[in-house]
Amino acid sequence: MRGGRRGNHWTLYMAIALAVAARFFGLATLPAGAAFNSRADSAGLVATPSYPSPRSPLSKSAASQPAPDEARVVDDGASPGAASAPVPRPVAPLPEPQRAPSPAPARPEMPAAGGGPAIRTVALAPGKVVLGYWARWGDEPHPQRSLERALDVVDYVTPYWFTLRGDGSLAARERDHGALLEQVRRQGRQVLILVNNGRGSRAAMVDPALRAVAVENLYRVVRDYGAAGVQIDFEGLPADLRDPLSAFVGEVAARLRPEGYLTTVAVGPKRSAESLDNDGAQAYDYEALGRIADLVVLMTYDQHGEFSGPGPVAGLPWVEDVVRYAVTAIPPGKILLGVAGYGYDWSPSGVAVVPARTAAALAADRGAAITLDGWHIQPYFDYVDAGGQRHQVWYESAESASLKFGLVNRYGLGGVAVWSLGQESPKLWPLLRGQITE
Questions:
Q1: Per-residue confidence (pLDDT) for residue 11, from 0 to 100
Q2: Is residue 158 part of a domain?
Q3: Which of 257, 187, 182, 273 is nearest to 218 (CA)?
């Protein structure tokens, strides 16, 4: 893959530049697809840090589905490093994927651009927050390797370690929490403990007494771990939990803020207050959560995924629609734009997650030409496997992710949140440092 990398970048940058020019500046009529060399290492994300704080490989959607109530219960404080790690359920393959209708124009293939000046990608502006999610299964090495590359960039490491149970206790996952905490502290960075929802979490959200137990348990974990605060990442909630979710986040903030800790929350993407195009987002009251929380992560990924036919993980127009609404309801400086470090491979056998760091190598191995979709501004490719099944892969490359940093800069957002460490292309991190690489 190393050979010819520079030449591949020229064609990729040119394709992205033409797409951006056509979309944002009306400078050219862009054909719907622009092919670039399949050996280009274009699978990643990027940005720079700095937030004055007082304080998959699974996809994000698969990792954060309500978890079975497994693992150790934390109801009297937590001890870093004492947790055991349940084995995650594998993602169930879908039947033959049905291609979802796309608002994008047709994508005729065209040869890669063959010359002209190199077009630079977009770097995150100085002073923006960078949050990196940590989600590890077993002894896989990639999250740790990614963390070592990223620790000079990220402000917050957010480990997926706890799940809220219905009785207000917390089920813990992963072993040796203390090692990660120590590594992050040595680099002068901070940890935000992530808690997600499990199958029985509803009771702890709607019952005031159980909610009080849950809030106290979260406070004890943050205190005992020496963390900067907590991230509440409740997903797949029905619309009737809208007010209970806001009440839960409010009570967490009321308990943590006087002690100098942060309360942050992740919210599903929506394009209006009562957006009906994403049922899972109706439980998020952007205005209420924006008032309560210190930071709000927009989960602007999984536009398509295990639940749909092939399509972009996070098309640029769709992401901008979400941002455009969000800034009307949440103070822009509190918003962190979620960026995927992965993609999906659709086939009649099901849907598999593809880490962005391996996507270009997969295309090269299959002899597939990677195409930049001219409307969604995201790469994809098709191939046929040894069994004769046709596959289509969409993923977030470093170059396509960098254009989303442009949205962060333009809308004055607080920064970015990358899901998740170990999936992204290494090329992401220079862009997150504010550097441009040719």
A1: 43
A2: yes
A3: 257
